[in-house]
Amino acid sequence: MFDTRPVGYVIGLLVAALGVTMFAPMLADISAGNGHWPVFLESAIITILVGGLVALASQNGLSEGLTIRQTFLLTTLVWLALPLFGSLPFILGQAELSFTDAFFEAMSGLTTTGGTVITDIEGLPAGLKLWRAIMQWLGGIGIIVVAMVFLPELKVGGMQIFRSEAFDTMGKILPRAAEISSRISVIYVAITLACAVCYSVVGMNAFDAITHAMTTVATGGMANYDNSFGGFGAGPHYVASAFMILAALPFVRYVQLISGGGMKPLVFDSQIRTFFIVAFSLVIVMTLWVWRTFHGFSEIGFREALFNVVSIMTGTGFSSADYMQWGPFAVTMFFFIGLIGGCAGSTACSVKVFRYQLLFTSIKAQIRRIHSPHGVFTPRYDGRAVSEDVLNSVMAFFVAFMVAIGVVGVALALTGLDFITSISGAATALANVGPGLGNEIGPAGNFAGLNDTAKWILSFAMLVGRLEIMAVFTVLSWHFWRS
Known about the structure:
Elements (H helix, E strand, L loop, with lengths): L4 H17 L1 H10 L4 H22 L9 H19 L1 H5 L6 H12 L15 H29 L22 H25 L4 H12 L16 H14 L3 H11 L2 H5 L1 H26 L3 H15 L14 H10 L15 H19 L8 E2 L2 E2 L2 H27 L4 H12 L7 H4 L10 H15 L3 H7 L1 H5 L1
Antiparallel strand pairs: 1-2
């Protein structure tokens, strides 16, 4: 019989830990003197009690390790349980959101998607603004740990190429997964603090600097203002661009850097080089388009192109301008830019660069086989031969990703949404980017006007996309439960 107690124990502990973090926005509301703090006290008590009771009830089922089936179930259910309790402050608090809207907001936050259903963000109490940032920050570190520890072992979407035991470390052996996770956590905190300091230096107030640093490093994209970064000047735009790029690089390379590995792992990682080449090329193309169409040869044209391209490519979802007004070429480009993503083992989302590298490597090898049938051509990644199961996993991911966009897009269209809103909503949810296209869910809008059915579809799509699609589909399969 399938034992769910180990899964319940871990989820209970994580839910209780989420409840503890609710005391931070409670203190923020007390400091602001707005009288909103009891909401977070109530939410924290409920969350800690439920999480603690589930953990205690499941404690007698602890074993030395999780089975593959238990790990699949854990990685899926934890991203359902945390948004469920994370939605409490939005239901009980000043926002007074419906359960559907509150769950959407919490799911968007914890999966670092960044789409919102709140129309007057400026009017929120300080605690709720901080809570949105905390959820994104926790989701950012959470997905790094999942990507480095769980998904490689589950052979999801080609992630097994990054197993810690087999990962090429440029001559140094990486520590085990638990030690990697602890070191990554320290680096994550350090980068967040550095980002907050830089925001403060360029003119943000302390509260904005802290909250936006959390959502920047998490590549989450939830801002404290309805127009996102539109009200900030050049300084915050450039700081955000720099830290979004830093957060989109593999955190394991930072571990190697501080462990004495020098800059070599960062410089010679083909995934990082490809990421910079693609990002640089897209920024140049978009800059030339903005110069030609609007601003002429100017700093603001370059800055808007840089900020928005980096934001969408890394899946952050901040916006400094309504790029829906930049013309059909720019709108089409932003749709496809959102499907690129950052590097594996980063807070960035979407397809990710390494999968495109493996895809093109596989295509190149196949073309050479057709040209020379008797030759032996082995696909290679970073100088290493790529096994057949990795390539099959990557191909399965691409097929599942494209099919999922089609299915979710059709499902959204059936709720009454137009084609652009449906297809871009499906893509932005599955890629965890944030803003879609069109007047309603584009960079100048939000998801508040969508019907409840569409919001539930998008919430599920955000979960599927954040867990690299295949993990959720595996749990939903009949064979998973029958075996």
